[in-house]
Amino acid sequence: MRFSKALIVTAAFILTLAVLPSHAQMVVDKNRSYFSPDQQFGIGFNNRGGHIQYALGPAFHIGLNLNLDFQKDSAFSETYYNFGPFAKFLFSGDVVKPYAWAGLGVIQPNTGSIGVTRDSSGNTVKADLPDAQMRIILAFGAEHFFNQNVGVYGHVNLLDAKLSPDPSTVGFGLQGGTAGIEFFF
To answer: In terms of CB atoms within 10 Å, which of 2, 28, 61, 74 comes out highest?
Structure first.
């Protein structure tokens, strides 16, 4: 008799626990969420141009580059208009948060010529413009957020690959850097 009462009490206890609502909470890394923007739109300005972005969470941002990139080299000097998406993953940090940055861009070199030619009938006009190129950049840097609305950042490009119909170039190592400020709303 005692066994059956104990079994009934245990079953009632288990059913009571099963019926109670449970509220699971996400685990938030406090180092990332402290002053990091979360679900906010933002704009940024840097030494290469600007960007717009959205903070999906305190650790992951996606955006769109709008850059005017000046390439200086002993063999050539070109200006590129760089337009394309990027993603930024912020690692844990207190005052300064390190991050990894990856960008894909369609670039249009500002080098080329416009040649006007006419055929024998005098109707055709032809302009020779440079071909668009695809650019992949991988970078590593750090950012400091003064609050959830303002941050300063800088990163160093570790991979800069330009894929074009002409000669493609891939650069590894220190391939330039970017420094700027971001505002989130």
So the answer is: 61
